[in-house]
């Protein structure tokens, strides 16, 4: 049982929030936990017997694309059937109130965009479950795709959620030709347009964030015209363990540029980038209640 944050802490945070013009929010998987989407490193972070991290690599895809597509097809289905929660709404509302707010979203589930977060004020750092690209980089195909299932061979059974998640129910072995094939080169497989381990964040996104941090008013990554330049006043670390780089490094970068930092996590990290420093705020507890309360 986590005690609620004190009135005094909420008051000092709110005063700073009201004064803040430029705010960077680093968003992680815990934001969507209240919408029923499992986090990566918490309970439910395993799909069948695999950790997400074992499947979120190019090597896993090259070795067993049938397995990896079944994993992503399931997660697309899960995200499409989930409802955004009150914390997604509160962040979108804050973005609308503060033209100098930018969300660096590590989540690929699309829930932030579904609540109307202004598209020029969010960067989906790790890509999207609802974009696909050709696995042959030279081809260059990259497009939105919301089909559920993504291809008939991955069709959903009556008890799909059970069949596809229970490790003792064997998975189908789907032939290459029945997996999503690139419509442009008509040869290579499509893959999810997400950033797997060992892959680089797309250069336009990384440099867009760097420029925003440096005080630029034009955001290259979102093509947004941010009317508010200058230093970063506030960094919100929202439901991320901040162990994955380069995302985690934005916390220290904002700190160095004079921003005050507020953590909204389930537990207080003992080490690493998510460890609060003196002068930070650390709000612990259920994001779907705390975030709307703090960002009012
Ligand atoms: C709740 C809750 C509840 C829980 N209610 N809250 C520097 C140092 C060390 C390593 C590296 C480094 N630089 C690069 C690396 C390597 C690597 C890396 O960071 N590894 C670390 C694990 C050590 N990084 C990369 O490979 C990156 N690429 C790169 O750097 O390229 C350059 C390069 C190229 C070639 C060679 C070397 C370098 C790419 C990283 C891409 C990450 N991709 C993933 C998968 C996306 C696709 C998919 O989903 O399938 O992105 S990994 C996964 O982790 C996903 C997430 O976005 C990301 C972050 O996870 P997040 O959001 O923090 O989730 P959790 O679960 O960890 O935390 C949830 C939080 O919620 C917790 O705080 C809980 O308290 C809270 N919570 N339950 C409310 N019920």
UniProtKB/TrEMBL annotation:
<dbReference type="GO" id="GO:0017136">
    <property type="term" value="F:histone deacetylase activity, NAD-dependent"/>
</dbReference>
<feature type="binding site">
    <location>
        <position position="185"/>
    </location>
    <ligand>
        <name>Zn(2+)</name>
    </ligand>
</feature>
<dbReference type="InterPro" id="IPR003000">
    <property type="entry name" value="Sirtuin"/>
</dbReference>
<feature type="active site" description="Proton acceptor">
    <location>
        <position position="126"/>
    </location>
</feature>
<keyword id="KW-0808">Transferase</keyword>
<dbReference type="InterPro" id="IPR026591">
    <property type="entry name" value="Sirtuin_cat_small_dom_sf"/>
</dbReference>
<protein>
    <submittedName>
        <fullName>Silent information regulator protein Sir2p</fullName>
    </submittedName>
</protein>
<dbReference type="GO" id="GO:0046872">
    <property type="term" value="F:metal ion binding"/>
</dbReference>
<dbReference type="InterPro" id="IPR026590">
    <property type="entry name" value="Ssirtuin_cat_dom"/>
</dbReference>
<dbReference type="Pfam" id="PF02146">
    <property type="entry name" value="SIR2"/>
</dbReference>
<feature type="binding site">
    <location>
        <position position="182"/>
    </location>
    <ligand>
        <name>Zn(2+)</name>
    </ligand>
</feature>
<dbReference type="GO" id="GO:0070403">
    <property type="term" value="F:NAD+ binding"/>
</dbReference>
<feature type="domain" description="Deacetylase sirtuin-type">
    <location>
        <begin position="3"/>
        <end position="296"/>
    </location>
</feature>
<dbReference type="GO" id="GO:0005634">
    <property type="term" value="C:nucleus"/>
</dbReference>
<comment type="similarity">
    <text>Belongs to the sirtuin family. Class I subfamily.</text>
</comment>
<feature type="binding site">
    <location>
        <position position="139"/>
    </location>
    <ligand>
        <name>Zn(2+)</name>
    </ligand>
</feature>
<keyword id="KW-0520">NAD</keyword>
<feature type="binding site">
    <location>
        <position position="134"/>
    </location>
    <ligand>
        <name>Zn(2+)</name>
    </ligand>
</feature>
<dbReference type="InterPro" id="IPR050134">
    <property type="entry name" value="NAD-dep_sirtuin_deacylases"/>
</dbReference>
<dbReference type="InterPro" id="IPR029035">
    <property type="entry name" value="DHS-like_NAD/FAD-binding_dom"/>
</dbReference>
<keyword id="KW-0479">Metal-binding</keyword>
<keyword id="KW-0862">Zinc</keyword>
């Amino acid at each position: 049982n986590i005690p609620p944050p004190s009135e005094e802490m909420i008051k000092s945070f709110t005063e700073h929030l009201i004064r803040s013009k430029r705010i960077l929010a680093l968003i992680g998987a815990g934001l969507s936990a209240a919408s029923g989407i499992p986090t990566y490193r918490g309970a439910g972070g395993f799909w069948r017997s695999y950790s997400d991290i074992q499947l979120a690599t190019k090597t896993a895809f090259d070795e067993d694309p049938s397995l990896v597509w079944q994993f992503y097809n399931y997660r697309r289905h899960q995200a499409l059937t989930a409802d955004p929660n009150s914390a997604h709404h509160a962040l979108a509302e804050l973005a609308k109130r503060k033209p100098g707010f930018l969300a660096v979203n590590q989540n690929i589930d699309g829930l932030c965009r579904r609540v109307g977060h202004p598209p020029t004020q969010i960067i989906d750092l790790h890509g999207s479950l609802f974009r696909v690209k050709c696995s042959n980089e030279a081809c260059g195909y990259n497009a939105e795709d919301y089909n559920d299932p993504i291809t008939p061979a991955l069709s959903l059974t009556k008890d799909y959620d059970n069949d596809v998640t229970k490790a003792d129910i064997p998975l189908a072995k789907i032939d290459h030709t029945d997996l999503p094939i690139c419509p442009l080169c008509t040869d290579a497989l499509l893959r999810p347009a997400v950033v797997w381990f060992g892959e680089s964040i797309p250069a336009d996104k990384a440099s867009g964030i760097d420029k925003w941090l440096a005080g630029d008013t034009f955001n290259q990554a979102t093509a947004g015209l941010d009317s508010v330049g200058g230093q970063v006043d506030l960094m919100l670390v929202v439901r991320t363990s901040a162990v994955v780089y380069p995302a985690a490094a934005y916390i220290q970068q904002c700190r160095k540029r004079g921003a005050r930092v507020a953590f909204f996590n389930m537990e207080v990290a003992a080490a690493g980038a998510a460890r609060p420093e003196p002068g930070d705020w650390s709000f612990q507890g259920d994001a779907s209640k705390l975030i709307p309360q703090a960002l009012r």
